Amino acid sequence: MQDKCGIVGAYSKNKSHNISREIYYGLYALQHRGQESAGISAHNGSEMRTYRGMGLVCDVFNNGNLIGLDGNVGIGHVRYSTTGKSQIQNSQPFIGKFDLGTIAIAHNGDIINSMELRQKLEKEGIIFQSSTDSEVICHMLTREYSQTQNMVESIKKVSKKLIGSYSLALLVNDDLMVVRDPIGIKPLALGQREGTTIVASETVAFDVVGAEYVRDVEPGEILVINDEINSFKIPQNPGTSKAHCMFEYVYFARPDSILDGRIVYNVRLNIGHALYREHPVDADVVMPVPDSAITAAIGYSRASGISYGEGLIKNRYIGRTFIMPTQEERETSVKLKMNPIKSELEGKRIVLVDDSIVRGTTSKALVNVLRDTGVEEIHLRIGSPPIISPCYYGIAMATRKELIASDKEVEKIRQTIGVDSLGYLSTKSLVECIGIKKNELCLGCITGEYPTQLPSDIDEYESCKC
Ligand code: AMP
What we know:
With 466 residues, the chain is an alpha+beta fold. Helices cover 32% and strands 25% of the residues. Helix 5 crosses helix 6 and helix 9 packs antiparallel against helix 15 (427-434).
């Protein structure tokens, strides 16, 4: 199961405060990270209650079920799995009952060795309710905790066995804990408001409830949050480096978020400037593929002096096209999603900016749509380097053979997509635009070099999942 999700955890010092409402607003702000299901678990000092449902945050929650989720401490989750079963059993928080109480777990990431770990647990008699790797983590944690009666030590022990990415919010009875994997692939930040502590995948979840961004949870850090915040460190192998996902900056995160201290909006503006420096062109107008490339297109326009315009209007009530199972449906859905404004395009030489090319489906379909409007020239500029290798850490992309750049040079891609020129951002510029050292970023999808071990049969395993 590949999950690109959003998580929130919150604690209020005021025991009679119902924290679910803040968690709900936080999840609302993280809706772009998952549209498939949403859930909240809260603890009121005597019991834990959970409500989960399929669909958007606004469809799942209402005043009635939020009032039922009373308690001053809780966690929440929005889920987006690209493939596999979209069913309620796989929604989160995942709940486990065990001899020491109840645990709820909200996970963003992908555990690469989860199959192996799951088979081991099954052999030992564990029965699984879902097909998520989050349930694997849950069983591993509760088993350790039953023996050690110390959750922080249990997390440290379990972490040693997990390979992959994980930002976790845990509710262990009424204790809130968060964990970020030792290389920090997925984001996780800490925020505060008078008497309330919030953790979330992205800082936009703080803005909506009036909390201040304090700092990021460090890679390999465990926070235990109650009236105080206590920090613990997962022991790491010497030489372990951070590996923040570059794709969060390029595409996934909201531009108004701060990730590992960097404002995503500024990174995307930098990307637009750098794209112009690397691939200048004479044209009449710069246009984005909305919405994810808007900021980079503004950057390109500012750097080049070519005016910015809108040529494609997005229907914002359609979900992400990636989740369509067949190529034909993906192509149709591009037309459903974007409509051209003929009067803005006819006879023009345009610079079209997108954040990435994965399969090439979007670009190809858009080029056909644009050509039909009578556009004169299309110069496609991409705010990331060619994606040549799959992501194994939870950014659902495609299998290797579906990636257009896995076996094609730029010129061949240009011909396949049918544009007059094509320019990708270089890896060197991307790293500079983000402002994090190259060896502290995960660039696996553009270099084929990954920050963790990979099982030898990983491609086979990935293609069964997709
Ligand atoms: P493709 O059509 O396969 O080349 O996908 C590229 C388009 O999808 C770009 O416009 C991106 O903004 C968007 N995109 C890139 N990665 C993802 C992803 N993991 N999930 C959904 N959309 C994506």
